[in-house]
Amino acid sequence: MAAKERAKAGKPRLYYPSPTGAERGRVRLRTLSNLRWLAIAGQSVALFLVYFALGYPLPLTYCVAAIAASAILNVVLALRYPASHRLANREASYYLAFDVVQLAALLYFTGGISNPFSLMFVAPVVIAAATLNLGNTVALAFIAFVSVSIIGVVHQPLPWPPGEPLMLPQLYQAGIWAALIIGIGFTSVYAWRIASESTRMSAGLAATQLALSREHRMASIGALATAAAHELGTPLGTIAVVARELERGMKENSPEIEDVRLLRAQAERCRAIIARLANPEEGLLGNTARLPLGALLDDIAVSYRDDATKIVVSAQQSGGTQPQVWRVPELLHGLGNIIENAADFASSKVAITAGWDATQLSVVIEDDGPGFAPEIYERIGEPYVTSRPGHHALGETEMGPRGSLDEHEGMGLGFFIAKVLLEQTGGVVKAANPPGGGARVSIAWARGVIDGDAPPATAPE
Description:
Layout: H1 3-10, E1 15-16, H2 21-24, E2 27-28, H3 29-53, H4 60-80, E3 86-87, H5 89-108, H6 122-131, H7 134-153, H8 170-248, H9 257-278, H10 280-283, E4 290-292, H11 293-301, E5 310-317, E6 324-326, H12 329-345, E7 349-356, E8 360-367, H13 374-377, E9 403-404, H14 405-424, E10 428-432, E11 439-446
Parallel strand pairs: 5-7
Antiparallel strand pairs: 1-9, 2-3, 4-6, 7-8, 8-11, 10-11
Helix pairs in contact: 3-4, 4-5, 5-6, 5-7, 6-7, 6-8, 7-8, 8-9, 8-12, 8-14, 12-14
């Protein structure tokens, strides 16, 4: 098995739920019910003001029946489901479609689209765009489109003082119809894209926290090993001393002397291993260990070297001795992800260059692969954007599949996670396609950020 495949196989597979379209559409029933009660109150106030306060004639019985239908639906849902019940996409679509049809019926008796309250057709579609998947949103927008078109042609007269009928020109009514259709389409598309981007970003940040948590657990294992080394040193020393005394008290031809020598040798070997673990500068298991920048990069890259990909680490010194950088989990995982991506896409070689001067440190990772695809170049660093063979940059209808973190990194989260983690350490990440071909990712830090007297201050988990 190749080195980088072994490295992947050694990673724990951590799972978390991705906000797929089905899950994204799960809204609370109470939310829709409260909005419907608000609409019922507004419709009732407007209806009784027009009929009783202004004295305009209208079919009050039918209008009250339309409003009562919404109230009855809310009461039935409140009796059938608990307050905390969440709706799946299809359920929420049915209830929002009812709201569209109920509004269309009410407007049919009160002037059709000539009624200023026809603007309220926008509300259910925007709610759907912000909470449901694309298919249900399009279906609801179509229902709204049909409803607006029907009541634009067939409707009762607009309530108006008797003897003063209001006749709007056909061209003006056509303009109202067009404004409603365009408004519904524009606001729903805008709301859906904003909600989609927000959900994708939330999924990416959740994966980032998961990756960081994994690295912190690995660092904690190292700290535990160091503590265990200190605790085990004394009893192992005692065992070695007792074994040495037993060996001295035995005759050379004793049958047990070889066993005692083996016991002493193994005890000494354990003490040597523990001594390396107890020294974070040599064992490199503590999360406060430091390494020269070049050695750190070589230590990270070793997991991704194989016979097909040559990874070369070099240094470009502009002044001073090579800086000692902190091995914080954010830095290790971030650089590791970028190096892994470069090794996966490289034809034969990955060049990693460490540079430093009096003002900044830099790491440049270049590969001789195909480079960043043109269709994703402007979106590099966003979650679920990839040109990895076998996958595609996820469209706006998908938030990412359910699965393990490693699978999600293969779907376009790896670079996003790396960018977020490296930025938490104070780094500035840039990606480009150099003129000579391939891909280049550069990271720069101000001096003292990752090579200061204390580890870099990173965002908490």
